[in-house]
Amino acid sequence: MPEHDLAWHAGISFWRGATRINDTSVGIELENRGWQKSAGMKYFAPFEPAQIQALIPLAKEIIARYDIKPQNVVAHADIAPQRKDDPGPLFPWRDLAAQGIGAWPDEQRVAFYLAGRAPNTPVDPASLLDLLSRYGYEVKPEMTAREQQRVIMAFQMHFRPALWNGEADAQTQAIANALLEKYGQN
């Protein structure tokens, strides 16, 4: 549909304090098999390389036309983690960021914030959620433990796709700190 027409592509959503994302965003939908569940685990389908190659010039053109900041190039899972998982952990966010599409933390700063801790060292979930809220995710005091986990999981699928278990750990915290340093808070 034409970009000037309002669509309900984002649905009920939140990003960086905004709740009417449909009014202020351009959605790009990529066709994909999504995920399947087996033995209690979700398995996501990969994206076709040709699809990603077609996405790159389109996204760059939209980003330039609307002056979209890297931290505002987000996924359904980022803006609606309680009801969306897409595009999932196999989406090539790092590669796209290298092309000027979206945000990605500097690895050296992640290592700095990791400060010698093992990546899987548990951290206080409330502290991590505060960082994620400052970056742009919706975090509410009344959220259940499962809802909190889904916010962390959405962040991990985007910025640490190798492990997206929703656990509050040192590596996730370090990535959040590096992103806040690079892109600021909402």
Automatic annotation (TrEMBL):
GO terms for molecular function: N-acetylmuramoyl-L-alanine amidase activity. It catalyses: Hydrolyzes the link between N-acetylmuramoyl residues and L-amino acid residues in certain cell-wall glycopeptides. The keyword Hydrolase applies. InterPro entries: Amidase/PGRP_sf (IPR036505), Amidase_domain (IPR002502), NAMLAA_amidase_2 (IPR051206), PGBD-like_sf (IPR036365), PGBDSf (IPR036366). It comes from the Bacteria. Its EC number is 3.5.1.28. Pfam families: Amidase_2. GO terms for cellular component: outer membrane. Keywords: Cell wall biogenesis/degradation, Hydrolase. Residues 2-89 form the N-acetylmuramoyl-L-alanine amidase domain. Signal peptide: none annotated. One of its GO terms (biological process) is peptidoglycan catabolic process. It is an enzyme of class 3 (hydrolase). Belongs to the N-acetylmuramoyl-L-alanine amidase 2 family. This is N-acetylmuramoyl-L-alanine amidase.
